[in-house]
Amino acid sequence: MSTSRIYGPLISTASPGEHERQLVDVFAMTAAAPTELSAPTSADLFGVPGPIRLQAFATPGVEAGAVLCRFAEPGAPIREEHSRVHRDALRVVDFYAPDFDEALAHAASAGFAMQAAEASYETNEGGFREAHRHGPDGVVTAFLHGDRDFFADFAEVRDLVLSEPVSISLPLSDAGPTVAWYRQVFGWGVVYEYDFVDASFSALMGVGEELRVRSVTIGPSRQQTYVNVVDYGVGAGLGGSLAGHGVAPRRGLLGLVVLADDVEQIARAALGAAGPIVEVDLPGFGSTRALVVAAPFGAPHLVIERSGR
Q1: Do residues 156 and 137 touch, judged by C-beta distance below 8 A?
Q2: Which whole-number Å values give the CA distances from 287 to 5, 44, 108, 242, 290, in the listed order?
Q3: Count of H-run helices and E-run strands, the chain
Q4: Is the pLDDT of residue 237 over 90?
């Protein structure tokens, strides 16, 4: 099995400027030069006409960050206000804030204030605080704060205002196929589970009914970025499905970027869910090979081979 890890979110946008400023000014990421994929490469990777503009952002000191993509003909948003807790599409990018109030002030001073509602809830691991920002293209970012010893086992960057992307949440109608798929394709397993009910979290999510949050987190280890497969326990009136929405060229939190030692092994493990392997020159990653594999819930996972294999 090829060694792999989640690099971070793949964000699709028609207007990358605000995303770029937030990633750099709030999350202290460094920006690589943007690059343009040719029409044939765009078609091989994402199955849509090109060219595609890609730009990588990196959290200094760790193999984590984010990638922005702009398709030649950007589609409609994946998520909108009415579908904020719908299932079957990625939902939130989470960052650890060692000092919660400092992080809120830092974001506000950069022009990216978090929404007024905050959550404060208890799990069996202690108390947590959480704040959200609803950004362009329906992309939500979250600040998480809790016991420092707890986050020492999850966040790699703990000496800055905000960490690398710690997790990306994913509400699903049926978690089983996706959990099995991550294990088959990437060799990842369940690294953590939690369960809580709290009125402040329901208010943060903007829903009137009580949410019962149950989560199974999937990744290569607790210490690296993971997928937070979550069940909000919402009723039929709120909990619709976005199946088929989280695909290129739609805008928003489109998919994940994964780093792997051997993309050929990933392609074999993914079977029919894998596209062709292409040679690419991606600033931030170098001259390398890449492919896209589609998860059971549809989202593209851009797998980039680590250079120097």
Answers
A1: no
A2: 19, 17, 37, 35, 10
A3: 7, 17
A4: no
Instruction: Give the mean pLDDT of 95-110.
Output: 98
Look at the block and give the residue holding tokens 């040679």.
279
Confidence of residue 1 (pLDDT cuts 50, 70, 90): low
Please give the angle made by the CA atoms of 61, 64 and 68, to the nearest 5 degrees. Answer: 125
Alpha helices in the chain (DSSP H): 16-21, 39-46, 100-109, 148-151, 175-186, 199-205, 263-270
Contact (Cβ atoms closer than 8 angstroms) between residue 173 and residue 288: no
Q: What is the DSSP letter of 289?
A: E
**Which pairing describes strands 4-12 and 65-70: parallel, antiparallel, or unpaired?**
parallel
Question: pLDDT tens, 180-211?
Answer: 999 999 999 999 999 999 999 989 988 877 88
Q: pLDDT tens, 112-135?
A: 999 999 999 988 888 999 999 999
Cα end-to-end distance, the chain, whole Å: 15
Tokens describing residue 253: 């939190």
Q: What is the 3-state secondary structure (H, E, C) of 92-135?
A: EEEEECCCHHHHHHHHHHCCCCCCCCEEEEEECCEEEEEEEEEC
Burial 89-128 (b: 16+ CB within 10 A, else e): bbbbbbbbbbebeebbebbeeeebebeeebbebeeeeeeb
Considering all CA atoms of the chain, what is the largest pairwise distance in Å, rounded to the nearest integer?
Answer: 52
pLDDT-based confidence at residue 50 (cuts at 50, 70, 90) = confident
- Residue 164 · residue 62 · CB < 8 Å: yes
> Of 304, 305, 295, whose CA–CA distance to 90 is shortest?
295
Query: Cα-atom radius of gyration of the chain, to the nearest Å?
Result: 18
Tokens at 230, concatenated:
């979550």
Those residues with Cβ within 8 angstroms of residue 70's Cβ, 6 or more apart along the chain or in another chain: 12, 13, 14, 16, 52, 53
Stretch 253-278: mean pLDDT, rounded?
97
